[in-house]
Amino acid sequence: MPKTDQELYARLDALGINYRTVEHEAAFTVEESKSHRDDLPGGHTKNLFLRDKKKNLWLATVDEDCPINLKQLRHVLGASGNLSFGNADLLMEVLGVIPGSVTAFSVINDTEKRVRMVLDTALMEEELINGHPLRNDRTTAVTPSALMTFLKAEGYDPMMVDFKALADEIATQEAAD
Length: 177
Known about the structure:
177 residues; 32% helix; globular
């Protein structure tokens, strides 16, 4: 059985991680999330559960407003072939969450360490990072260092990617064409 938000909070407590959680209406998209959060400070995330043709998996936690180009990202990640989004069944199997609830915290359910974690460098410069605590009717805020503490305690050494630079590079290439 996947872990619950209460089990996640217990893990954060055990690690000595300070966090703040607020309840809101369920949000399945970034746009819905924006309409429910009022004035929560910090960076807000979008999370991409990705796979390649060899069934390698990635979880990318990125600033919610950063454009993503999967063709460009596949090269950065070293993916085999094109990247696509993992389906709902695979998401539940690996990360124990439903679509709309994907979060960096969901690696707590990846007991086989099938996912490679990818973090946005710009997001890590925020004072706080906001993500769903395994359910999409709440938002939990932690500091970037606390997120790293959690990820490392769960056995992950995230790959850091400058998603804004990737987006700028693509915009420059398109303007030149």
